[in-house]
Every structure is written in C-alpha cells, then in structure tokens.
C-alpha cells in the first residue's frame, strides 16, 4: 500500500519553514509521497480570496524541484504537484487525461472545478467528456 500526505497549501501555510517541517514529518512517518495542491475558490473556499501570490507559487515550485531532483533530499518522499505541470501543459483533467466524478455523481473537470457537466448516472459519458474538453479547466486552460 502506498501512503501519502495531501497538503492544500493555503496562503497562511506557504513559507519555507512550514514546507520543510511538513517534508520532515512525511519522512519521519515513512510516507511515499506528498500530494501538493493549491487552494481554489470551491467547496469550503467558495467565494473566498484563496489565490496564492506569485512569490508563494515560486516557493512551491522550488520546493517541488528541490525535493524531487536535489540529491540532498533523496531520502525524503517525492512531491506530486499537479499545478507545476498544468502551468506548462494545461489542465490534466477536463477529459484530457482524466475526469472527476464526485461522491454525488457530478462530472467535473477536476476536483478543484466547481461546475458540473451532468451526472454520471444520467448523462451520456461521451457527450460529457466532449463538453469538458471544450470548456477546459479554469486557471490552467491557456497554459
């Protein structure tokens, strides 16, 4: 079984000390990888200003690169950071590489997207995927 820690890196959390402490904890617990997510204004954050600053995004990108590629961190868990790649190639969801179906059956571009494209129980899945592909995923649409 692969065990990971998931971190939604909020504005309040993102600083070098917190990221290093989190990585040390993951190492101590024997975690395989850290799943690093950026907050989006959906779910509990709907309507809130949760966007990270450019400085914080750069800090997360540096954290990702150091802990995955710097030999001094080879004994630490790997860091999975989807936004790192999505900024370069676009959304990985939206019917591109995956779709997301929430616990209510709503078909969405990804776990962070608020809008639904039908319900998996009632909609033609091929049509839903075409709709997802046409609309894309908010912040990474034009990467």
What's a quick, concise take on this entry?
With 143 residues, the chain is of the alpha/beta class.
Q: Can you give a write-up of this model?
A:
This protein has 143 residues and is an alpha/beta fold. The protein folds into 2 domains: 4-89, no CATH class; 100-137, no CATH class. It contains 4 helices and 5 strands. The protein has helices at residues 16-29, 54-69, 82-89, 125-135; strands spanning 4-8, 33-37, 78-80, 100-101, 107-108. The strands form 2 sheets. A 3-stranded parallel sheet has the order 1-2-3, covered by helices on one side. It has a two-stranded antiparallel ribbon with strand order 4-5.
Layout of strands and helices, then pairs:
Layout: E1 4-8, H1 16-29, E2 33-37, H2 54-69, E3 78-80, H3 82-89, E4 100-101, E5 107-108, H4 125-135
Parallel strand pairs: 1-2, 2-3
Antiparallel strand pairs: 4-5
Essential attributes:
elongated; 143 residues; 4 helices; 3-stranded parallel beta sheet; two-stranded antiparallel ribbon; 2 domains
Q: How many helical elements? A: 4
Question: How big a fraction of the residues is strand?
Answer: 5-15%
Helical content band:
25-40%
- Structural class, from helix and strand content? alpha/beta
Q: What is the count of structural domains?
A: 2
Strand order in the sheet with the most strands: 1-2-3
| Poorly predicted spans | none
Mean pLDDT over the full residue set: 87
């Amino acid at each position: 079984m692969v065990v990971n820690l998931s971190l939604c890196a909020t504005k309040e959390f993102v600083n070098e000390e917190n990221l290093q402490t989190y990585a040390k904890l993951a190492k101590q617990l024997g975690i395989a990888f850290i799943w690093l997510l950026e907050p989006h204004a959906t779910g509990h954050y709907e309507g809130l200003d949760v966007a990270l600053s450019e400085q914080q995004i750069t800090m997360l990108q540096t954290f990702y690169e150091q802990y995955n590629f710097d030999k001094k961190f080879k004994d630490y868990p790997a860091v999975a950071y989807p936004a790192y790649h999505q900024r370069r190639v676009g959304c990985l969801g939206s019917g591109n590489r995956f779709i997301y179906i929430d616990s209510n059956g709503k078909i969405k571009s990804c776990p962070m997207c608020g809008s639904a494209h039908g319900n998996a129980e009632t909609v033609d899945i091929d049509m839903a995927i075409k709709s997802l592909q046409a609309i894309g995923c908010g912040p990474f649409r034009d990467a």
